[in-house]
Input
Amino acid sequence: MKRPKTLRELKASGYRSRSTKTELRENLIEQIRAGKSRWPGIIGYERTVLPLLENAILSQHDILLLGLRGQAKTRILRHLVNFLDEFLPVIKGSPLNENPYRPITSQSKRLLVEAGDDLPIAWLPRELRYSEKLATPDVSVADLIGDLDPIKAVREKLDLSDEGVIHWGIVPRTNRGIFTINELPDLQPRIQVALLNILEENDFQIRGFPIRVPLDMMLAFTANPEDYTNRGNIITPLKDRIASQINTHYPSSVEIAKAITQQEAWTDRSAQIEIPELIRDIIEQIAFEARSSEHVDQGSGVSARLTISAYENLLSNIERRAAVNKDNDYYPRICDLYAVLSSIVGKVELVYEGELEGPSIVAVNLIGEATKKAFAQYFPAPRKPRSHAAENQRQQENVYEPIIDFFASGRRLELSDELPYREYKAALSQVVGLREIAHRYFKPKNERETVLAMEFVLEGLHRHNIIAKESPDNKFVYIDMLENILKD
Output
């Protein structure tokens, strides 16, 4: 389609000028009626955040997304550009993307008078109508709004009272578009004040310059609730002017969390790595355990990036083992879960008690609790055998007794995430009754999953304090609990 190049052609085309918020509103309604997917890649917010966000757009509101880290706030705001027109006509050469029908600067007004209907038109793609600024303490009013440029005045021989000496900031340069500020509380209060007029009156001034530049734009912000007390806050007048505040949240279920991780994690590896649902569940459950742990600062939150990076490290550990052993064993083990410690320790903020425990110990315990929670979904709860039960008391079957007896006889079982598959399988196969329990309750699909379930049983018994486990030099040695206590 040939686009008009002059104001005359634009008028002849019947183009209708709309404000940015009206454009967003009408395009959103059109997409809703057409049944289009409006928020691709945003998972878990279909019935919570997104309806509220769409209501805000339909109300022509400026928006604040309030939530803990790793809740897709920035990604959501970047999707807003999809509700803009594909191209927008602007006065050619205007730094403020001015409307050819209604110029706002003195230079463009003068150009319109001189050129009339021959005013040149340029077409701005929607991608260039979105600007984003990360709020940091060093951001200045000049960065956001603009300032007088004395060098420009000298170079172009302009008086400092001439509007042409203004160097426009990022906000006015996003005129007729969407401007977002991430981590709004990090802006100094005096800088936040500079945004008040833009939000309420849609205009601004520069250093008391005798001009008022009306802007046509949507403003959107993100903030972390923790920031209100730790680094700064949003000044009350500014917060009052942001019409819609929408709270984001973490995934409400493991299934939703798995879908997010599967979408975001880098899985395009050189070999085909099959990860069963059990391992995926445990990886996601680690984050859920962290979000309820007394050792983790819940005010800081536990980002979805934890499980994404943990999943990637798990795949990498499987690749590394195959390379070390020069085989094609691209299947996970329970002991591979402890290779994701580096993905946990840097992504959880610990409270005082957690610092005393140490980040690595807290991370190991989170993996353990996640494994224990998954174990309960497949196997009966372990119990310690009662040696002196009353004769008339009917004892419940202890399905794990053969395994407990195996270790009680003084035997030990050593596993490693670097052990070749044949040795790994042979080590697990020597435990009496282990394979039978795995088949009975886990119902594995194949031999490889059977071996995984066998190791899962041992780890579950350890997490229920039925058998002990030592971890010397990146190895895992399962032993009798009593032997471990006496050794200590």
Summary: The mean pLDDT is 90. The first helix runs from residue 7 to 12. The first strand starts at residue 63 and ends at 66.
